[in-house]
Design goal:
The structure is a single chain. The chain has 159 residues and is α+β, with helices and mostly antiparallel strands. Helices cover 40% and strands 28% of the residues. It has two domains: 1-30; 43-125, OB fold (Dihydrolipoamide Acetyltransferase, E2P) (Beta Barrel), CATH 2.40.50.660. A five-stranded mixed β-barrel has the order 1-2-3-5-4. A hairpin with a 2-residue loop joins strand 4 and strand 5 (119-125). The mean pLDDT is 87.
Length: 159
């Protein structure tokens, strides 16, 4: 057996080992996420709020309570999260929004949000739908360039 075949077999065995390890880690992470989602749904309550501002910012700059900062892992403190400042009753609070919901949240409008602690999981409008006042999504330079190239090539851009 030549050296090339031995190297190929070793690389193949290592790749299969990595794939199996990722499979089991993925299943464990999926179970954890399902448990967390159940806890969020159990503690959820509908709150009427006036959205003041929304941004994606670092967790340590978001103005969240100290207890939140102490509970997050050190690596996650520097990652950007969708933060929403809203007036709930007489109090102005900072919330963390779900990534899927963050784009739907209108600024300077009143909404009914499903909140679990400081986490916003669902949003709907108080007066009518919230999609009417939604801001158009700004495209990055790369996306604009890609669409112009697709138009020139005759292909339709993906929406």
């Amino acid at each position: 057996m030549s050296t090339g075949w031995i190297v190929t077999i070793v690389i193949l065995v290592v790749m299969i080992g990595i794939a199996v390890a990722l499979y089991f880690l993925g299943k464990r992470a999926q179970k954890k996420q399902a448990e967390q989602q159940e806890q969020i749904e159990a503690a959820a309550q509908v709150v009427q709020m006036l959205i003041i501002d929304k941004k994606k910012m670092r967790l340590n700059q978001a103005g969240l309570p100290d207890a939140v900062m102490q509970q997050t892992p050190k690596l996650m403190r520097r990652s950007k999260v969708p933060v929403v400042k809203a007036k709930v009753g007489p109090q102005v609070m900072s919330f963390i929004a779900d990534a899927a919901v963050f784009d739907e949240i209108p600024v300077k409008k009143e909404v009914k949000a499903t909140v679990s602690g400081i986490y916003i999981s669902k949003v709907r409008g108080v007066r009518g739908s919230i999609s009417k006042g939604a801001e158009p999504v700004k495209k990055s330079k790369f996306q604009q360039f890609k669409e112009t190239l697709q138009e020139k090539a005759g292909a339709a851009p993906k929406k």
